[in-house]
Fold this sequence. Notes:
Elements: E1 12-18, H1 22-33, E2 38-42, E3 55-57, H2 58-66, H3 70-74, E4 77-79, E5 83-87, E6 92-96, E7 108-111, H4 113-124, E8 130-134, E9 137-144, E10 147-153, E11 159-169, H5 176-181, E12 185-200, E13 209-213, E14 219-224, E15 228-235, H6 241-245, H7 247-254, E16 265-279, E17 283-284, E18 287-289, E19 295-296, H8 303-323, H9 333-357, H10 362-376, H11 379-386, E20 422-425, E21 430-432, H12 433-437, E22 442-446, H13 450-453, H14 456-464, E23 468-474, E24 488-493, H15 497-503, E25 509-512, E26 518-522, H16 527-537
Parallel strand pairs: 1-2, 1-11, 2-8, 5-13, 11-18, 22-23, 23-24
Antiparallel strand pairs: 3-7, 4-7, 5-6, 9-10, 10-11, 12-15, 12-16, 13-14, 14-15, 16-19, 17-18, 20-21, 20-24, 22-25, 25-26
Helix pairs in contact: 1-4, 1-8, 8-9, 14-16
Amino acid sequence: MPHPALTDAQPSFDVVIVGAGPTGLTLANQLGLFGVRTLLVEAEEKLIDYPRGVGMDDESLRAFQQIGLVEEIRRHTTPHQIMRFVNGRGTLLAELDPRTDEFGWPRRNGFVQPLVDAELFAGTRRFETVEVRFGHRMERFTEVRDGVDIDLIGPDGVPLTVRAGYLVGADGGRSLTRKALGLPFEGTTEPTRWLVVDLRNDPLGSPNAYMGCDPARPYVSIGLPHGIRRFEFLLFPHEDQAFADDDANLHAVLAPLIPAPSTADVIRRRVYTHNSRVAGTFRKGRVMVAGDAAHLMPVWQGQGFNSGIRDAVNLGWKLACVVRGAASERLLDSYDSERRRHAAAMVDLSDKAGKVISPTNRLVAGVRDAVFRGLNVVPAAKDYVAQMRFKPMPSYERGAVVHPGRPLKGAPCVGRLFIQPRVATRDGAEALLDDVTGPWFTVLAWNNDPLAVLDDEAAGIWRRLGARFVEARPMCQLHWTGGEHSGATVVGDLDGRLKSWFDQRPESVVFLRPDRFVAGAALAQNASSLTRRLTDALHLIPGGPDVTRPVLPVALPVDGVRATTG
């Protein structure tokens, strides 16, 4: 159903999102994909273009794959970007160079955020149910019995009230949404400030990232796509905003790192302080917060951007289930229980990384260097750092998941992100798994037709939800057609990764949520009983309406822009 016009007496939407940053834009694309009537409002007249995130991980790329924009976004990335920590003498202390692609994409990628945001904004144009309005500032909101009334001020100063079933505040660290809800935002703000500078025509040209652990002045140097170089420099207490704005001072801090600082082509510069904060809850009634409105963290592991994308991916499908009548509103409780703990873990990781780069006391820096020299002579420790095994991966102990009643032998999988290997299809194509399963629920079985192991009631539950049924087989069995039930998609395990994954645990049937987390896993004979338990965990409404499986638009339109400041 197309969105209502804002000229209506009181326009009504399923969801209103405040804030056109990466979190809000990703959520708008997700909701558009799922057919949810969505209004995205942004107080600024256009997308923000000042220095922000530069690190994108594999989870975010997988999210962009789901909404059909990964190829557009990859044009603005540097895959497999290595991060090297060096001391004041240039000696290598540690190297982060993870080579895993278990989720289908490189784990570390440099990127240019303004260009990625622009691709996300363009992506919203594909959906008739999504409207984007720049120059519209939210003044206040009021929760009513069946929705939220949101008071806006347009670019011409004219007030406007819209009604939404749900409101999502993705309106940044100074979030009006969070403040209006009265949510605590506990944590710390570092007293130190950093000067962030982006240069065009990269004066160095090297492709990777360097964390300069130099007590004389800690710095960051990152090669970005399209000939852009990001520098970040610690400012000392006596160096104020006027110091940062002075070109001579900028040239002086650049001088140790580039040959001719006076000729550097500055795109933009900005002074930042680092915050480490997490909201007391991510949901209150019909209102939710996401992205920087829900959590702020230092930049050192590049996880502020990625944590916001995780919020959008976790929340989007849940809002769609509730709006489309498939699940009760209680499903939205799992957004807070699943995302807040992991966001706090990423804040903690970012704080720890900052303690590695920022010491200006030479004695402390010397001790740090000695610790890393010790770690580097132990191959297991060195590899642990290089492969980023210290990074907390999302793992949901409670929420929209069903864990085994008793611990099973093997690697746990419920509440964790499922792998994404390449698979083969019967028409001769090769693709990443998500491109075959689609962006909605999936019942995936190894070497069994999932429709053969589910009883009629259980199969009916998943059919009404619009789930796809997939059987994974060894490649040599791909084209065998004996004993099949109609409706299941058969894929071949191209490189053996699916067989290896199932070999590490007893379960052979997995139930995948739209965000590709494992909602539950079972032995084949237990798949039907688990389905009934998942009905409760997902708060599905018995006898609810059939849900149409979402399908990605074929391509971006070349015209018909619906975003406006009017």
